[in-house]
Design goal:
Shape: globular
Largest sheet: 9 strands, antiparallel
CATH architecture of the largest domain: Roll
Distance between the termini: 41 Å
Helix content: 10-25%
CATH class of the largest domain: Mainly Beta
CATH superfamily of the largest domain: Electron Transport, Fmn-binding Protein, Chain A
Number of domains: 2
């Protein structure tokens, strides 16, 4: 059931009420000082009331735990994936509001000055200050709006360069455009919009329509181009992606390892609008917020693929596997080969996966200790290990084989950690595999 969306401000209020929010009052420098504080609080939302050198506050960690997505969507944690799947199947056109009703356009910066925004320099080896919680909205001449995450390196007061992955939405639209490609870069968004922007629907499906299916997502037209942006955004940077390039990187990516330096398109910013007292969202690369936003939106596609061959219960793309390369697939086993079939299907649902563990429904797929227990007690390598050599894989995996201009290659592995069926209809030794729960005392009687 959809309810009123939580923008950054209502999210801050809610997490302040729950005691999750950490507020820091003293000035903190976005250059190399803020990132270590965020890292020390990984898993907690943190609000910096004073960013040194900027008039804007900074929020980080709003997406660093599944509980926060559940809070924003009004769903139990184990139902968030199903909410995403439902919105993916049935997107809804977002309503358009007048500019007078759009918080993101209440203030128009008199002169474009990206130096006023508290872009973070995270690591000493970074190429410079980056916007990492930014989504870019462009219009493909053939398929329409495309919304996606792009890290943006600030070059000077009016220019950025962004990592634009080849053959994906923004790159495809830019290649079809002989001149500059209009773009709107939004920073400081509701959690459900960030989730939708992380998804990769078929061309022609607007990610903001997926967001609207998750929670109300009113949009407004930009001031300098025809693009529509979430009206609840804190900042909107309107501009043009040019065909000129500049060096982008080094940058620490999802795997917590250095990404390479590339020549990437330069973006000219023509207009900046924002809410009064706008709050800048800083997403620390390689930590939980980055991982969950990357991985969770891929869970519905894995679920759909596995459901074609087995009775799938749930999916967890795990942070320990960088929320991109590892997944736990939970099934309700109906046939002896379901574990193997589920593992094979998971790789079809998310081709970047490298390792998959399949477990029964009595295993908590969100608890790595529980998953390891299933491997320890239900898995035999000579029987349940599945290996596929030399497969197309993720460019994010530093151990894969990378050849410029070609798809990365890697071996892939599935572990069937479900209970062995020694009969066509089940296991004759089922009680040997089931955990015996020990009743827990009420400690109020003892302490």
């Amino acid at each position: 059931m959809r309810g009123k969306s939580l923008n950054l401000r209502t999210f801050i209020d809610k997490t302040r009420e729950t005691g999750d929010l950490v507020t820091i009052q003293r000035p903190v420098d976005p250059y190399l000082e803020m990132a270590p504080v965020i890292a020390a609080l990984d898993g907690r939302p943190v609000l910096f009331e004073q960013a040194a050198g900027s008039a804007f506050r900074v929020l980080s960690g709003q997406c660093s735990d599944r509980r926060y997505f559940a809070l924003a969507l009004g769903s139990p944690v184990d139902q968030v994936m199903f909410r995403l799947a439902e919105a993916y199947r049935a997107p809804q056109t977002p309503p358009v509001v007048d500019r007078s009703d759009a918080p993101c356009q209440q203030v128009v910066m008199a002169a474009v000055d990206l130096l006023r925004l508290p872009f973070l320099t995270h690591y000493a080896g970074d190429a410079g200050p980056y916007a990492t919680g930014a989504i870019a909205i462009v219009n493909d001449p053939d398929s329409g709006p495309n919304v996606s995450f792009h890290r943006c390196l600030r070059l000077d007061s009016t220019r950025l360069t962004a990592r634009i992955v080849e053959r994906r939405g923004t790159d495809t639209a830019l290649r079809k455009t002989s001149g500059d490609l209009p773009v709107a870069i939004c920073i400081g968004l509701p959690l459900h919009v960030l989730l939708a922007a992380s998804m990769a629907p078929d061309p022609g499906v607007d990610e903001l329509a997926i967001a609207q299916a998750l929670a109300p997502t009113p949009v407004v037209q930009c001031l300098t181009n025809s693009l529509y942006v979430p009206a609840e955004a804190e900042f909107v940077l309107e501009g043009r992606i040019t065909h000129r390039t500049a060096a982008e990187g080094p940058f620490v990516d999802l795997t917590e390892t250095w990404d390479v330096v590339r020549q990437q398109p330069v973006i000219e910013i023509d207009c900046i609008t924002h809410r009064p007292d706008a709050i800048y969202h800083a997403l620390l690369p390689g930590l939980l917020e980055h991982k969950l936003l990357m991985g969770m939106p891929k869970e519905p596609t894995i679920y759909a693929a596995v459901s074609q061959v087995a009775r799938c219960v749930n999916i967890n793309i795990t942070p320990g596997g960088t929320s991109w390369l590892h997944a736990v697939v939970q099934i309700d086993k109906q046939h002896a080969e379901d574990g193997r079939l589920a593992a094979e299907a998971a790789f079809r649902g998310h081709p970047s996966l490298k390792h998959v563990v399949v477990v029964d429904r009595d295993v908590d797929l969100y608890d790595p200790n529980d998953v390891e227990w299933a491997i320890a007690t239900r898995f035999q390598a000579d029987r349940d290990l599945l290996v596929w050599p030399d497969q197309p894989s993720s460019s994010l995996d530093p151990s894969a084989t990378h050849v410029p201009g070609q798809k990365s290659r890697s071996a892939k592995m599935g572990l069937d950690a479900t209970i062995l069926w020694d009969q066509p209809d089940g296991c004759t030794r089922l009680h040997h595999f089931q955990r015996v729960p020990l009743p827990k005392a009420d400690l109020n009687e003892y302490l």
